[in-house]
């Protein structure tokens, strides 16, 4: 009888302290950080937010890129060559409180854009679940998701999501509307289910 009482107390303590290791996704704190120049990646970030909850944060730079596309491409190529990390205006309030961090960015120069590299250098995501997503002009994510893994060596990096967005080079800017938005929504939901963020 004494043994049974002892076991009941241990069981109750275990349940209340979470030692069952069963924190469900809905209890996890989610942050969605994204970079977006022509708002396609932002549209994907908003779909993720709608289906997972979480806090949305757009990355802003101290010194924004030029409006001119060609000048921006040249600046990005130079920054990639020199390894320059552009300073960010955006600071995350208590990043340590988040368990899951979505990282969204467009493909630039077939790579992760320098500002997202700045973010991953400035913020320690070790021990967290990191989930990348991307939009591009049809050439894919390039080395972007590999770079996420390299810059987050102590995080659990889940399978990323990538979709065709705008083609600024050809004057095609924001495309995530109408049928394209519906398509994107269903693809994002399928992916969120696969990685068990959504039921
Ligand atoms: C500086 C720059 C470089 C880019 N380089 C590539 C590239 O190498 N490959 C590609 O597929 N798309 C490239 N793009 C196109 C963007 O990835 C695409 O338009 C994306 O959907 C933009 O996302 P956003 O609307 O969130 O800014 C580039 C765009 C910019 C502005």
Give the strand content.
Answer: 15-25%
Total helices: the number is 6
- Helix share, percent: 25-40%
Mind describing the biggest β-sheet? 6 strands, parallel
Bound compounds: flavin mononucleotide
Whole-number average pLDDT? 91
Annotation, overall tally of beta strands: 6
The gross shape turns out to be: globular
Distance between the amino and carboxyl termini: 42 Å
The arrangement of helices and strands along the chain is HEHEHEHEHEEH
Give the low-pLDDT segments: 9-21
Structural class assignment: alpha/beta
Radius of gyration in whole Å, from Cα? 20 Å
What features would you describe in this structure?
- The chain is globular.
- α2 (40-52) crosses α6 (178-194).
- With 199 residues, the protein is α/β, with parallel strands linked by helices.
- It contains 6 helices and 6 strands; from the N terminus they run αβαβαβαβαββα.
- The chain binds flavin mononucleotide.
How would you sum up this structure in a few lines?
The protein has six helices and six strands. It has helices spanning 2-17, 40-52, 69-82, 114-122, 144-151, 178-194; strands spanning 30-34, 55-58, 100-106, 129-136, 156-157, 161-164.
């Amino acid at each position: 009888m004494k043994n049974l009482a002892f076991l009941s107390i241990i069981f109750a303590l275990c349940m209340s302290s979470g030692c069952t290791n069963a924190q469900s996704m809905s209890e996890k704190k989610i942050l969605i950080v994204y970079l977006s120049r022509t708002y396609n990646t932002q549209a994907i970030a908003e779909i993720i937010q709608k289906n997972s909850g979480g806090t949305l944060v757009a990355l802003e730079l101290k010194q924004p890129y030029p409006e001119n596309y060609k000048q921006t491409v040249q600046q990005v190529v130079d920054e990639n060559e020199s390894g320059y990390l552009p300073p960010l205006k955006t600071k995350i309030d208590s990043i340590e409180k988040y368990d899951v961090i979505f990282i969204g960015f467009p493909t630039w120069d077939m790579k992760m854009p320098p500002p997202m590299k700045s973010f991953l250098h400035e913020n320690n995501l070790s021990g967290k679940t990191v989930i990348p997503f991307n939009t591009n002009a049809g050439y894919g994510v390039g080395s972007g998701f590999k770079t996420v893994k390299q810059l987050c060596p102590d995080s659990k990096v889940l399978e990323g999501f990538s979709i065709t967005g705008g083609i600024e080079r050809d004057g095609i800017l924001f495309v995530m509307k109408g049928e394209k938005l519906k398509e994107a929504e269903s693809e994002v939901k399928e992916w969120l289910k696969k990685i068990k963020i959504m039921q």
